[in-house]
Amino acid sequence: MSSSRIALITGATSGIGEATARLLAKNNFKLILCGRREDRLKALQTELSSKIEVTTLAFDVRDREDVSKTLRSLPEAWKAIDVLINNAGNAHGLDPVQTGSLDDWDAMIDINVKGLLYVSREILPGMVERKSGHIINLGSIAGKEVYGNGNVYCASKFAVDALTRGMRIDLNAAGIKVTAIHPGLVETEFSLVRFKGDADRASSVYKGLEPLRGEDIADLILFALTRPAHVVVADLVVLPTAQASATVVNRK
């Protein structure tokens, strides 16, 4: 294999992850694309393989044993991962805490927090041993400020923010860069998942404004990855122009 950096992306089958895969392929990153939907992974691999070497791993970040077994199955040539993009995440429901669904809570904590940890725990020892690497964790403006009915989702993203800060401290001696990107409103499958397939309710989230796109976040990820060795983009909040905070949005 060539000397291109290897980037592993979780949640690569849609939205920010898919856009990031396409942009990194154009910029000579070899890709390990991860997700649950194997058909989408294979389609993206077919699309991008003309540009760069691509491999795929189908697993659920919530399943600790599956994460470990699958990542350890990587061929030796793919194991020296330079970049880990912890993008897999979700929101389920938008309910006050007193009537929230326990299943929704489990899904958010299991994917947004524990899933990020499971994947990171497999990849980080190699980076530490090589004293090289870059972690990018996808957070949310919901990890900076709490909004009504966002309770557990916000808590999970506050956890991502805290974990990112902790990683930066723990990995400092190994020279590993750690970046957090916290987007505001990004039009992906996020709201469709949150509202359990209700397309009308999901589309209303972005009504009257121009939201961010997955490609906008991919641009920022590439920017962070291409800074000089002595520079780390540590913590970045990005909003569409129409959004001032989690709850203040200028809708035309």
Structure summarized in a few sentences:
The protein has 252 residues and is α/β, with parallel strands linked by helices. It is built from eight helices and seven strands, in the order βαβαβαβαβαβαααβ. The chain is 41% helix and 14% strand.
Please specify the SSE layout and strand pairing.
Elements: E1 6-9, H1 15-26, E2 30-35, H2 38-48, E3 54-58, H3 64-72, E4 83-86, H4 102-130, E5 134-138, H5 151-170, E6 177-183, H6 190-194, H7 199-204, H8 214-225, E7 235-238
Parallel strand pairs: 1-2, 1-4, 2-3, 4-5, 5-6, 6-7
Helix pairs in contact: 1-8, 3-4, 4-5
Portion of residues within helices: 40-55%
What is the radius of gyration? 18 Å
- CATH superfamily label: NAD(P)-binding Rossmann-like Domain
Shape: globular
Using the coordinates shown, work out and report the CATH topology.
Rossmann fold
Proportion of beta-strand residues: 5-15%
What is the straight-line distance between the termini?
A: 51 Å
Major beta sheet summary: 7 strands, parallel
If you average the pLDDT, what whole number results? 95
**How many strands?**
7
Question: Architecture, CATH level 2?
Answer: 3-Layer(aba) Sandwich
CATH class: Alpha Beta
Query: How many domain regions?
Result: 1
The H/E string reads: EHEHEHEHEHEHHHE
Q: Helix tally?
A: 8
Q: Helices and strands: which structural class?
A: alpha/beta
**Sequence stretches where pLDDT stays below 50 over 5 or more residues:** none
